[in-house]
Amino acid sequence: MDAYDTYARSPQPVRGPPRERDDYRSADPYRDRRRSPDRRRDRRRSRSPNQIDRYQPDRLPRDDYYRDRRDDPTPRERRRSSPQPPAIDRYVPGQDAPPPQLLVNPLPDPMKLDFQVGFTWFAEWWRTEQRIKEEKDRQRSGKPPPRLRGERETREDRDAERPKIQAAYDQYKESLQKLQAQTFVRLHKLEDWFRERYVPEVKEPFRGRLMDFRKTLFARWQADLEGGVFDEFTLEGIYKSESNGLGGILEKEEGETTAAAEVLGVGDLLPSKGGDLRDLMALQPTLLIKTIAPTVTREKFEAFAKEHLGEGEGGYMHLSLSDPNPLKKCHRMGWILLNSESDQAIEDATPVSKAESGNAEDGEAAEGEVPMMPPRPKNTSEKALEKINAKTIEDPERGNFTVHCGVHRPPEAPRKKALWDLFSAPERVARDLDLATRLVRKLDNELGDEYFGAATIEARVQQLADQGLLQPVAAACKPPKADADMDMDAGEVEEEGMIADDADEDEIDDPELLVKKKKLDLLVEYLRRVYNLCFFCVFESDSVHELQRKCPGGHLRRPRASLTNAAKEVAHASAFGDEFPLRKNGTSKNAAETSRGEGEEETDLGENGSPVEERKAAAMKPNARNAQQLQRAFNWVKTYEEKILQWLEPENVGLRKLGGTPLEEGVEEELSKFVKQEDASKYRCIVPECTKLFKGTDFWRKHVEKRHVEFNERVYNDVRLVNTYVVDPAHIAPS
């Protein structure tokens, strides 16, 4: 059915006589109406809308209202093209109101966490807390909300609040360290490892036995020192790229630079000639105890080892225990050092093969008989392992413990770590020498009145200096000045890139500095071999094996050529206790003097300097990245020196910063938890098994000191124990 038939079937108005239907065009009423003169009268008009005397934003537009119904879409299309609700363009109360303010901090309180958060995390929590506090005060007072601030004002506010955040962060760290230290001491104060380190009644007998063992180490050290073993010993390191593999430096070509300006890591140094000595105690026959429960005391284990191994040749010599591991329920490792067997005893224990015993007369094997290889003889460690492994320590009170051992094999090539370049500055060497000398004298006084390690080392170094045996580490080989002059013609100038002979005069150690470095090197090695103490890591062990587990090979100093001008300035500040001398961009805080000096230097280089010197000067000039690295080095050196002073001057240590409290203040704070104020003049004692009332805290305090003597003494001991724990620079971290 076409469009014409559809229209024809619909009722049509009568307009004059009927016409022929053979021509559909002539029968079209629309065409007739357009042609008719009275088409305006006959045209159907749609009804006008109702009168509207107000604005309706949701009313349809006029064009849509007058749309022809023939063009009206189907319901499905209408659903697809349904218009979005129009935007409201009139005022609605509450439309422009700001979002509700945050009244609960989404970040948890740092004091309630088990670890110390970083500064950025704390700053975000602090700012949120301040906003919440201001919003609550505003709601309470009915003040209008603050106006929006611009970017510049926001940056100024951030800069102004940073000192406040830093002060709050420092206070947070002190409070957290105090809380963690008290919790850690309360949990572990009854364990044996804690008591032998911090309780005087247990610590002094253990230190006495340890000093007896160290007296043998001192005798061995003194014999090696007098025998010349340490005459060439040094802590000076060589860059791997410049080492010749024999403890020396490769010969450089003319104009070749060093690796001083490169970014180097901790393991990029090799020891110089004489600096790769190993402690022979590390090669002593030793058994490794894989794990020791915290319930096993040192006394019981020593008695167990002496019972099964004896104390003769190949028997028990010393027991060493590591620090407990908090992540493994405070279990420890251990080492049993054994006495060496004599050569005669080893030869007697060596089995003889059948070929040797059967043909002893002929001296050769029988014809057609394959000679049997002699079995490898068991060494001292393997013999001791058979005697003690899988044995049980009987303890009816704490429970039995089965010992599992193995043969300890020390590392073949212990890795040496490179120190920060600040330690190569002459001022820093002198400061470290003073600290090391004081520490050695303190430990020698504990060892005995007849032991003088510092004086022995000083006498030996002076003897070497008088003989002219103290020489700096071999520098880059250069041709002699006379030969160099002969190679050049009289009118010939130096080639571009050649470095003058006196270019590195500042990097050459003078005799006084050589003596200081030699004393420092021997004192550091003396502390490692006799007291099993790492001077730069600041921790003490009871054997060389525990020392090598934490610090395998010791430390090396970087060559002085790696020191930039900024590094020298920072090293000077660290040695004399000054503040960090550089800004964030790497420039010195003494801007006038520094800028004037740099300007003169740049002028000289620009006029008369070579490209090599210009590149070297550019590398030595400080920048933001170098300043950040120097800041890390400065902080590391400062922390290391503070830890050393905790050993040397424990009475001058800031207890609050470490997490402790002064004794009287700490006792008062702990005792205040056991008194309760019930009225204006009524204070009740809540010490266990006591409920007496007092008129004031003074009367209550006298009551505690008189009637609760044991309780009062226990509080004093707990506060003193916490202070002793935090003052120890090598204490186990609570977290």
UniProtKB/TrEMBL annotation:
Residues 17-31, 55-76, 148-163 have a biased composition (Basic and acidic residues). SMART domains: DUF4187 (SM01173). Pfam families: ARS2, DUF4187, SERRATE_Ars2_N. PROSITE patterns: ZINC_FINGER_C2H2_1. It comes from the Eukaryota. GO terms for cellular component: kinetochore. Residues 685-708 form the C2H2-type domain. Residues 1-105, 133-163, 347-382, 581-612 are annotated as: Disordered. InterPro entries: DUF4187 (IPR025239), GPATCH11 (IPR039249), SERRATE/Ars2_C (IPR007042), SERRATE/Ars2_N (IPR021933), Znf_C2H2_type (IPR013087). Coiled coil: none annotated. Residues 32-47 have a biased composition (Basic residues). PANTHER family: G PATCH DOMAIN-CONTAINING PROTEIN 11 (PTHR21032), RESISTANCE PROTEIN ARS2, PUTATIVE (AFU_ORTHOLOGUE AFUA_2G14710)-RELATED (PTHR21032:SF2). This is C2H2-type domain-containing protein. It comes from Friedmanniomyces simplex.
